[in-house]
Design brief:
By secondary structure, the chain is mostly helical. The chain has helices at residues 20-36, 40-55, 60-65, 71-89, 143-155, 187-202, 209-230, 234-266, 271-296, 302-307, 311-321, 324-333, 338-349, 353-360, and strands at residues 57-59, 101-103, 111-117, 127-129, 133-135, 138-140, 159-165, 178-179.
Amino acid sequence: MVTESCHPRRGSPRRGELPYALIRLLGMLLVAASLCGCGTLYLTQAAAGQWQVMRARRPIDRVVADPKTPPSVRDRLLDVRAARDFASTRLFLPDNRSYRTYADIERPYVVWNVVATPELSVEPKRWCFPIAGCVAYRGYFREKQARKFAAGLARHGLDAIVQGVPAYSTLGKLADPVLSSMLRYGSDELAAMVFHELAHQLLYVKNDTEFNEAFAVTVENAGLERWLTAQGHADLIARYRKEQEEERAFVTLFAQARADLARLYASSSSVEEKRAGKSMILQRLARDVRALEARYSVHFYDSWLEEGLNNAYLASLATYYDCVPGFERLLAEQGGDLPRFYGAARTLSKKPRAVRHEQLCH
């Protein structure tokens, strides 16, 4: 969820009192719901969930100094504090109040995203909201609500999935905190998440989720390698590059299957033939993924395979990775210079969506 630009008054609110910025946010969302037909209940849960997250914030320095803070949390926050400074000084990402506070949200994920596609299409369904524009997912702060919504979509014949999300960005409109859901991951992954979310604050294009996510993934990857290099961890850099190679092998498998499905769905075959072909392609993909997991001794996609692959899983992965090679080429063309890369990406963002995607995603 993203919000309008708003600045809270100085000083902390009394316990139980909504900060001024969140009062404005809630009012703005409710007004927008009546204007755009987005659904008042959905936007209300989004505003309430955002308020709960912001209300739980504490300055990282204060949490680190608190003797009651568990050592594991303290150590991880020290890591993220250093990575946050690195993001602004060495990666030239926004230098603001985001990720300088910590919020214990007491659940494994901050939101659960619903991704859906038609039964015979690889294109994700999009939902449109004020400020954010149209996006290829719909997020809920309660897992039960997300699964209820996904079940309703499935009853109407759509392929739908629910995915837990450990972090998100309000695009710099509010001071996003480091979340306890982020600390479940290793120090390197935690730094990568901070780089990714700050990249969204640097550049965000309405109505183009694929552009936004691929840009952030590219910044995340480039940032993490530079972070590890700066720390002098040659062993971790080697491991990171190996993991990148493995990840790309899986992404290629999913992309090939998605392309096969797209050709099938665009063909003149009957609905029954398309359904049979879809089943065969997804079964073959599942076998190939299991074989690749065995080859690399990893279990990246076990939960997907257990639940059963569908169009929505492939669309979700494509949203993040289809345009990454194009952004990596753009970064290379700028000699690896991040400020120049940001400028080139910003220039590209001003072009029509079809032009951007032709240059980056194909």
